[in-house]
Amino acid sequence: MSDYHLHVVGLNEDELHTLFFSEGQRPLGDLDLHTTREVALAKVLSTLSERDKRRALEIQERFHVDPTGWNFPVDQVPHLPTVQQAVWQNRRLSLVYRQESGNIMTPLVHPLGLVVKAGIWYLIGATHETIRPFRIARIQQIEVLQETFNRPEEFHLAEYWTAWCARFLPSYPVKLLISEDAIPRLLQLFGEALRDHLLRSEPDVSGWRTVSVVFETMETARAALLGFGPTAEVVEPRELRVSVMEWAEGLLTRYTSKTRDQNDLFPPMRPSRARKE
User: Fold this and answer.
1) Is 80-168 a domain of CATH 2.30.30?
2) Can you list the positions of beta strands (E) in the chain?
């Protein structure tokens, strides 16, 4: 189809933004589609009027979306192309899959679709029991079977994912007392959406504010809040408050004993007295 000619009528501002919004390369790169997207956009660009062409290039230079998260190791997904092929061809998959617990399962899966969230790829698949997500980086072995399957007509990928996230993602609400020094780090963790909540919380006479945030689990909350040092205090839940105190005491004991051991090995230098002649 190399002789195919594309004709695009004038695009309005919103349509130009939709087509030429600059996105990070990771998701399409994982699917080997980034170059294909660039070629497709170049073809569309060549058909635009000079005015629309200039505007499209301006949009690409002024907006960029990076879908990957901060400070997380990138998932290695060597089986993603195989999964993608099975999704397109409605072919059953035989998986060797490592669960989060470390247990190995060997399900037969009808691959219904692919989802990428914060740079992490998931296969949404139907087993004989249910429809569920499989994190593709945890697939140890994969075999595309000859058998095909019929997609359930009532299944809609985006609706399923939204409902699954709302229902199954862990949620651990925490009430904190924070100083002004904690605000930049808190915004780094939870994003600018938290700023309005912070502005609505009146500081007390000492300048501390009460805020409510949500972590995934107690463990992730504890790990994050220990990094705040003395700038944040857990108010609720009590189990988290006690856990943070215990870990802080453990750190203090560890570092105190290490310092004592080092002082035994390397006694602090004492200034020598000048010898009288």
Assistant:
1) yes
2) 22-23, 64-65, 91-98, 104-105, 108-117, 120-126, 131-135, 139-148, 172-178, 209-215, 232-236
